[in-house]
Structures are given as C-alpha cells and as structure tokens.
Design brief:
The protein is about 40% helix and about 15% strand. With about 425 residues, it is α/β, with parallel strands linked by helices. α4 crosses α5 (about 135-145), α9 packs across α10 (about 240-255) and α11 (about 275-280) packs across α12 (about 305-315). The model has no long low-confidence stretch (mean pLDDT about 95). The longest helix has 16 residues, at about 400-415. It has a domain at about 80-105 and about 215-385: Rossmann fold. It has a six-stranded mixed sheet, with helices on both faces. β6, α5 and β7 (about 150-155) form a beta-alpha-beta unit. Bound molecules: pyridoxal-5'-phosphate (PLP) and zinc ion. Pyridoxal-5'-phosphate binds next to α10.
C-alpha cells in the first residue's frame, strides 16, 4: 500500500506513470513524486506516527514505495539534541543538532537508500547501483547485502579510506573511476541506459530523493509538532536541502503542523561552492566548478538540484554560506569538543557556515535553529588526525604519569 499518485515534471507539470524514469520527455525537467495528500491525511495522524516503529518507517504513508518491500536496517528516527554549549559559543539561544551520524552506515544516505531499495524491489529490479561521493556507496552496498541483492557501486578515485573500506566490506562490485564525482555521474547516467540496474540516484532518483523528507518529518515531530525558525543544511547536489523544505510543507498540508515559516539556509565548502556562489551573485544560473575540498561528500561541481535550492532560498528568505577547509576542520573539532558529536567533514561545513551566519547577523540569536549533522567522523579521520592534541605518553607508573601531566599543564596554561 502506498499513496503515490504520479510523477510530475517540476518544469512543465506534465505527469507520468510511476515507472523508473527521472526526466521529462518534453522539456527534460526533473520528475518528482506527487501523492494523494487527502488520502494520506486520512490514513495517518500524530498518534498513529507516534505509535509507529522508531525508524523512518513511522512515516510509511508519506513514502513513495510499498512498505511490504522494505529492507530494514533500522534507519532514521535519529536524535534531535539540544546544543546548549555550542549554542552559547556561537551566540544562539536555542540551537538543536539533528544527529544523523548514528544511522546504520553512519550517514543520512541510509534514508534515501531505504526508500530507493524498497521501490527498486517493487519495480522488480535485481541489482542496485549508484554514483556516489562516498556515503551513498556505503548505504547502497549495505542495504543490498542485507537484501541479498547485487550491488554496483561507482566512486571517484580520491575518496577517504573510511569510505572505500566502508563500501568494500559489504562486497559490492566496487568501481573506482578515474575522475571526479561529476565524471562518475556521467558514466553511470550512460550505463543506466543499457543496464537493467536500479541506479538509486539516476533512474530511480525521484523516489530516492523523497527519503530525505523524513529528516524534516522527524525534526517537526521531535520539536513537538512544529517547524523551527531556521535550519542549516549541507548541500552537494542540493537535493537534501530542497527536500527538507518539501517535508515541512507536506506536514502542514496534511494537518500535522502549522504552515511552516522556516528560513532555509544552505552550507557548502569554498572548494566546491557552485550553489553558494550563485546565491551570493544573485543569479539562478550557477557555474559548474572543479571541486577541491576536504569535504568530499559534498564535492559535486555540477549540482542537479542547484537551481531548485536557489529558488528555495528565495522563497524562504534563507541564504547560503561557504567555509574554507581550515574552518571546516575547526568546525568538526568545535562540535566534538562542545557537544560530544564526531562528525565528518560535511558536519564541519555545517558548523562553520552556521558560525559565519550568526556572526554576519543572517541568523538572529533568538531564532530557534536546527543544524543537520549528516555523516560520522570516523569515515574522514584523515581530515583531523594531524590537528589533534597528541596523547600523553607514559611508562606504566604513577610518578611518571604525574610528572608528565604536570608538564603538559605547564605548557597549556603557559605557567
Ligand atoms: C550526500 C550528502 C549530503 C547532501 O547531499 P545532496 O546531494 O545535497 O542531497 C550531505 N551530507 C553528507 C554527509 C552527504 O553524504
Ligand atoms: Zn517537463
């Protein structure tokens, strides 16, 4: 049972039946899933959701797949954490962190893959595939393993070891492409024409992308059935960012929350900032970039949803910021030291951009703000390993420990 009605072109509005296609035959616009919202409103409620499983399947009525086909690794319903200490450091009165580092493969990509694999099985596909900046590869490989499906996972050559091992361990056919993510994506788009595989972010992208809305659903539910004043979301293709806004609006449409007035702000790395750069220039025509940043999970130089992300910034009175590699590392460290959450570089991008936006006055100190932490830090240890305080090294006796500790304190206090 599901409540999807049709695929609809985001540009010209033409409708298509629910098949594995992703772009409009007439205008090449991207297709998006449309639902029977009246039926959803009848089928679900706050009470029904609250009594559901502690995973994203509590929102099954809002997902574009029949839950009978689900492959359940326990994705979603991750903690929303009040960040008092980080908020105080940045100058925010009410800051929350949506901690999506604790998903089955330690990033929010488990959400989109959970939906994509269910829809792919419903379509009858026997193999799952993807073009990935790293985290998607991990999620596809793990879900395919759990379902006993074949997986073909394509990644760029310069990924962190944690992301490569974090895919290879599930034993997919792992393909390292000599080029950037944009090259990987071009290759996979070509292959999707000839192979009978469900490329989660290509031929089943309209369904896949809907999985990101569950982050908005959870935040609204966890805040006590309301949307926050402001959110900060890391952007690669811009899909997650636009879908969080869609999720808030849909929750209002089916009567679960009031009409949202959330200001949507996006975060990118300076070394790959096509969306933020276009926003700063006040244009909707972004210029593709050749990425050069430690935030590899966000390194998409030609973002598929960049245009819609810019539209959402305009519609919500939001904004976009960018941060240097150095600020990203400081962001990862600040988050860990103040809140006990170890994020990957994308989390550093979010925190660094949040800091900039508070400083510039774009985010006011009294706005209730949610920052999305989308991936875990053990996948990108390379980024911070040389920037940490070295451990105290001591022989196994108490006197030596006391002497070494005193010496360290003398250095750090300058005594
Ligand atoms: C993929 C990814 C994102 C955002 O991706 P979009 O393409 O913009 O949807 C954010 N954070 C992490 C850690 C990711 O892996
Ligand atoms: Zn169209």
């Amino acid at each position: 049972m599901s409540y999807e009605r049709a695929l609809r072109c985001r540009e010209c509005g033409r409708e298509y039946s629910l098949t594995p296609i992703f772009s409009c035959e007439f205008c090449f616009g991207p297709l998006e899933v449309d639902y029977d919202y009246d039926a959803i409103a009848r089928a679900t409620s706050r009470e029904h959701i609250a009594a559901g499983p502690k995973t994203l399947w509590r929102y099954a009525e809002l997902l574009p797949c029949d839950p009978a086909y689900k492959v359940d690794l326990g994705t979603g319903f991750t903690p929303l954490i009040r960040a008092e200490r980080l908020g105080a450091r940045l100058g925010l009165e009410r800051l929350w962190l949506k901690n999506d580092t604790v998903n089955p493969t330690w990033s929010f990509k488990d959400r989109v893959v959970a939906v994509a694999i269910a829809r792919a099985r419903q379509f009858g596909f026997e193999a799952l595939a993807c073009a990935s900046t790293g985290n998607l590869a991990n999620a596809v490989a793990a879900h395919a393993a759990h379902a006993g499906m074949q997986a073909y996972v394509f990644i760029p050559q310069d990924l962190e070891q944690g992301k490569v091992v974090g895919s290879a361990i599930y034993r997919p056919t792992l393909v390292m492409v000599e080029g950037s993510y944009d090259d990987v994506n071009r290759l996979c788009t070509e292959l999707s024409g000839s192979r009978q595989w469900a490329f989660v972010n290509i031929n089943v992208r309209p369904y896949y992308a809907e999985g990101s809305r569950t982050l908005a659903f959870e935040v609204a539910e966890q805040l006590g059935w309301r949307a926050p004043d402001h959110v900060v979301v890391p952007m690669a293709s811009g899909s997650l960012y636009t879908k969080i806004w869609k999720g808030f609006k849909e929750f209002a449409r089916i009567g679960l929350i009031e009409e949202p007035h959330t200001r949507m702000s996006g975060a990118q790395a300076s070394g790959c900032s096509p969306i933020t750069t276009a926003y700063a220039a006040g244009t909707f025509n972004f210029v593709p970039q050749k990425p050069n940043t430690i935030a590899r999970s966000l390194a998409i130089g030609n973002p598929a949803d960049g245009y819609y992300a810019l539209k959402t910034m305009q519609e919500t009175n939001g904004g976009a910021e960018m941060a240097s590699d150095d600020e990203i590392i400081e962001g990862v460290k600040l988050l860990a030291e103040t809140e006990g959450i170890f994020a990957e570089t994308a989390g550093g991008v979010t925190i660094a951009c949040l800091k900039r936006m508070v400083k510039s006055g774009h985010i006011r100190r009294d706005e209730e703000t949610v920052a999305f932490i989308t991936g875990a830090g053990l996948k990108t240890v390379e980024a911070v390993v040389d920037r940490l305080e070295a451990p105290l090294r001591v022989p196994a006796n108490a006197r030596a420990f006391e002497a070494t500790l005193a010496a360290r304190l003398a250095v750090t206090t300058g005594a």
